[in-house]
Design brief:
globular, Rna Polymerase Sigma Factor, Chain: A, 10 helices, mainly alpha, single chain
C-alpha cells in the first residue's frame, strides 16, 4: 500500500533519512511538514519576512548537512527548532556586531520594523504584545514564543534550548509578568 506524504510518521522519516535512496524524499517531507511552523517561530524573533525567509533556508541547509548524523535521540521537530533557534541567535548577534549596536538598539530596530509590517498594522493589541515580547531578554523571548504561540511542552523546549524544565518555567513566568506589566502600562 502506498502512503500519502502526510501519513508518514517522524519515525518513518528517520528510517527514510538513513536510506540513501529515500534521503532526499524524506528531507522534502520534513521541509513540507515543518516549514510553516519554523517560519513563524523565526519570524516572531526577527520580525522581517525577508530575514525570516533567509533564516528558514539556512535552517534547512544546516538540517540537510546534519541529516546523516541525526540518530533519532530527539524528536525531529525539536531538532529542527534547535537548528532554527541557533541560526536566529547567530543572525541577531551578527546584526548587533555588524552595526556595532547594543542589544537595546537591535530590539528598537526590530520594534520599528514591526510597526511598519502590514501583518501587525491593523491589530493594535497584537502590535503591543509583539513590542512587549521584543523587550524581553533573548532567552525569555524564545521561551515565551515557544510556549505561548507554539504551545510547546516544557520537555520539548528543554531539548530545543538545552536547559532544564525548571529554568524554562521560571523564564516563562518572568516573561509573562514583564509582558503583563508592559500591556497595562500606558
Amino acid at each position: 500500500m502506498i502512503q500519502k506524504k502526510g501519513e508518514y510518521s517522524d519515525e518513518d522519516l528517520i528510517r527514510f533519512i538513513h536510506d540513501p535512496e529515500r534521503k532526499e524524499y524524506a528531507f522534502n517531507l520534513l521541509v513540507d511538514r515543518y516549514k510553516e511552523r519554523l517560519y513563524w517561530h523565526i519570524r516572531k524573533l526577527v520580525i522581517s519576512h525577508d530575514d525570516t525567509d533567509d533564516l528558514l533556508q539556512d535552517t534547512f541547509v544546516s538540517a540537510w548537512r546534519g541529516l546523516e548524523h541525526f540518530r533519532g535521540d530527539s524528536k525531529i521537530y525539536t531538532w529542527l527548532y534547535r537548528i532554527a533557534t541557533n541560526e536566529t541567535f547567530r543572525f541577531l548577534e551578527k546584526k548587533r556586531k555588524r552595526y556595532l549596536l547594543p542589544l537595546v538598539d537591535v530590539e528598537r530596530q526590530l520594534s520599528e520594523s514591526l510597526e511598519a509590517d502590514s501583518l501587525f498594522q491593523s491589530d493594535t493589541v497584537q502590535l503591543k504584545l509583539q513590542q512587549a515580547i521584543l523587550k524581553l531578554p533573548k532567552k525569555q523571548r524564545v521561551v515565551f514564543n515557544l510556549k505561548y504561540f507554539n504551545e510547546m511542552k516544557y520537555d520539548d523546549m528543554a531539548e530545543v534550548l538545552n536547559t532544564s524544565v525548571g529554568a524554562l518555567k521560571a523564564s516563562y513566568h518572568h516573561a509573562v509578568k514583564k509582558i503583563e506589566k508592559f500591556m497595562t502600562d500606558d
